[in-house]
Structures are given as C-alpha cells and as structure tokens.
Amino acid sequence: MTHAELLAIERQHLWHPFTPMRDWCDDAREPLMLVEGKGCVLRDQHGHEYLDGNASIWTNVHGHAHPTINAAIAAQLQRVAHTSFLGFTNPPAIQLAKALVDLFPGSKLTRVFYSDNGSTAIESAARMAMQYWQQNSHPERDTLLSFDRAYHGDTLGAASLGGLPVLKGSGNDFGYKVVCIPSMESLQALPEDTVSRLAAVIIEPLIQGAAGMRLWPKGMLKQLDTWCREHDIFLILDEVMTGFGRTGKMFACEHEGVVPDFIALAKGLSGGYLPLAATLTTERVFNGFLGEGQTFYYGHSFTGNQLGCAAALASLQVFKDEQVLERLPAKVATLTRLLGSLHDHAHVLDIRQCGMVAGIEICRAKSPLAEYPPAERTGAQVCQAARSHGLLTRPVVNTLILMPPLCVTEPELERMMSALRLAIDDICH
Ligand SMILES: *Cc1c(COP(=O)(O)O)cnc(C)c1O
C-alpha cells in the first residue's frame, strides 16, 4: 500500500485518543505517519526526521530500535509470543519478577503482579488494598484517598482516582469511594472518621505528570509516608511516569527514601517497546490473601506476556551495560542549563523540572499576567510548529513537555531546546 492509500484509510476509519477528531479530519495538513526510529530520532512517511521530545508519550527509555531490546524480543518470538498466566508461568516473567524485586534491595516490596498498562497497574493496587482490608478484619476501610489534579489512568476505576475534572468523564466515582484532597495540610486536617475508613493513599511521587509537570514540595513524599505508617494505611505510589530513571534515579521514591506498600510501574518498564505493567507489593499484603478460599479476583488475558517481559529484561540489561543512571546527572545538568536560557523569554511563565522531565508553561504576557485561554490550544499550536523545526512533543494545555529518552545526547538536547524556542517564537509573537 502507498502512503497516500494508507492515509485515505486513516481518515475514513481511525479514531485517535485524546484528539479532537473534527480538527484532525478537517485538517488540510496530512497526518504525520511515523514509519521508522533509531535512538531519539523518528522518521515520517516522507523521510523527514524528528527528535522524539516526549519519548513517545513518556514511554521510551533507551531510544528506538535498540539492538539489545530488539534482539531480546526477536529471540523470545522464536520461542513463543504469549501464553496464559492464569494457571501457568513462563521463564521471562519469572526472571523479570526477580529483577524488579532486586531493584528494591532488602525492601519489603517482594511480590510482583503483572498487567498490561498503567491504568491496570493502578487498579490492581487499589483493588488489592481494598480486598486486603475487607478480608483482614477491617471491612470499613473501603475508601481511597487521592490528590487534586492527580492522574492515574483512563479506565473507569483509575479515572475515578484522578483529580483532573476533564479526564474523569462523567465525574462519577464509578462505584467506589474516593476522597480527593489538595495537600499534605488537608490530609492532616481530615476528620478521624474519614481517616479510619481509608484503605490506601495514592500519589504520583515528586511530580504530577498530566497536571502539567506540577512539582510537590520537597519532603512531602516522606511526610506522607510517615503519616501512612502512623495510621497503618497503605501507600500506593504511581510511578508509571516517574519510574525507570526519568527523575534522575531509578524510581522517584528513592529521592526521599520511601518504600511504599504498592508501586505501579508501566510506561518505561519494557523500555517503552511493548504494553506491560507490574504492581509490586509486600509479603504482608500477599499473606492477607492466603486464607481458605481467598483469591485476588483480577487479571487480564495478556498478563505476564512473554514478549513484553523479555523486552523489560533487556531494558534493565541496557541500564547496566550503558551505565544509564550513572550518566544521567550530566544530562540533567545540561537540561537545566538549556531550560535556564528560556527563563527570560517574554512568553515563558514557568519552568518546572524533575530530572529528565521538564514542563515549560507559556503565557500571552507575564506582567500583568495574561494566560492563553485553553480553548485557543496555544500549547498544541506551539507543538505543531515545533514539527517544522524537527521536534515532536505534546503539551498539557499550555505547558510544553520535554521528556526525551534517557539515551539523549547533549547536542540532541540542544537541538530540542532550540526547536522549542523557535516554535514558541513562531506562535506567541
Ligand atoms: C500514563 C500514566 C498512567 C496511565 O498509564 P496507561 O498505560 O496510559 O494506562 C497512570 N499514571 C501516570 C502517572 C501516568 O503518567
């Protein structure tokens, strides 16, 4: 099929996530069709090259078509692609579980439950926490606590934990009880009869991604952990975005020396190559499901997928082979320096950075402050303009996101930043 034929079908039959489809179908511009990738570079149907500025929606870790990950997937494919994890096990899933537990040496996180994506990793944790109390003498603990502007995924259950109204759909709590609060202070002010009904607290540690890369105050995670310990309430960390080096350490919780009762991993788990997720938890939680007739009634068809687990093992191997974490501080410093060059820009209101994750908030004017109305989709226009300067990324409303694969080089970071600056100038004059 020619590219033109493919795009004719695209316009006729496809429906894209988080995409205003009227604009997409109306658009005189032809859709960008990505056909190849290598490292941080992606190539479109015409052979144009772009830097992958948001790591393919926050997933890619070591770059595209990495030889180690490609070879591991190909080798696994020769053996078998997928077998059921309901009643069977498989070698890559076993090896990966050990490798994941070993990333938390000597900690209480010793059990691995697989699923397919970030939303299901979160739901697994939430449902384990609630069922645990149900069958372990505290059936009244049926409520989950989350934070304003949180994002934990799009399935009904995960969305109900979210604190961004537009992403909650109907705004229902979809049948289970969620208390949503803005800050640590409001947690400390919760009435005792609410606290006594909490099964777990869930948070994106250090930084809220979909809220526009919003940073929590330093030390807040540690305080939250201490509060949870004092009240014997489970702490669920959503490291779907922050996991696997994004924040400068393997996991965000390491920055504050916190080990949660549950950690949800997805996006970067397979290096960003295949849909795979894991929920890690403790022996205490696991033991709470060992009573007569007890089962965790939850699971998906592709749980423990062999190809995905092989990719994840290879990704962890690349972390070692290429000393990825050891080489991050220099890259983080370069990113900080380059972001600094935008500070005085007339249309840059705020710059937020956490390791290799950056959010650049744009505005019409700084003083007096004039923000762009969300309906004008200025952030999206800037990202569209960035394409013609060789950069692919996607905003959160008026916050431009820069979150390259960890393999990004200093020259590539410089090119990304200059493309972004040119795009801001193109749109915000
Ligand atoms: C992306 C994301 C999710 C949802 O993951 P999916 O794989 O898209 O279901 C959950 N939490 C956070 C923090 C995320 O960034």
How is this structure best described in words?
With 429 residues, this protein is an alpha/beta fold. It has two domains: 32-62 and 323-428, Aspartate Aminotransferase, domain 1; 70-321, Type I PLP-dependent aspartate aminotransferase-like (Major domain) (Aspartate Aminotransferase, domain 2, 3-Layer(aba) Sandwich). The chain contains 15 helices and 16 strands. Helix 13 runs parallel beside helix 15 (410-428). The chain is globular, with a radius of gyration of 22 Å. The model has no long low-confidence stretch (mean pLDDT 95). It binds pyridoxal-5'-phosphate. Pyridoxal-5'-phosphate is lined by residues 58, 117-119, 122, 151-153, 204, 209, 238, 240-241, 266-267.
Layout of helices and strands:
Elements lengths: L2 H11 L7 H6 L7 E5 L2 E4 L4 E4 L2 H4 L8 H13 L11 H12 L6 E7 L2 H18 L7 E5 L8 H5 L16 E5 L2 H5 L3 H4 L2 E6 L3 E2 L5 E2 L4 H12 L2 E5 L23 E4 L11 E6 H5 L18 H16 L6 H13 L7 E7 L2 E6 L15 H10 L3 E2 L6 E4 L7 H19 L1
Parallel strand pairs: 3-15, 5-6, 5-7, 7-10, 10-11
Antiparallel strand pairs: 1-2, 2-3, 4-12, 8-9, 11-12, 13-14, 14-16
How widely separated are the two ends?
42 Å
> CATH class of the largest domain, anyone?
Alpha Beta
**What coarse outline follows from CA principal-axis ratios?**
globular
**Hetero ligands:** pyridoxal-5'-phosphate
Rg from Cα: 22 Å
Low-pLDDT regions: none
Roughly what fraction of the amino acids lie in strands? 15-25%
Average residue pLDDT: 95
CATH topology of the largest domain: Aspartate Aminotransferase, domain 2
- Major sheet characteristics: 7 strands, mixed
CATH superfamily of the largest domain: Type I PLP-dependent aspartate aminotransferase-like (Major domain)
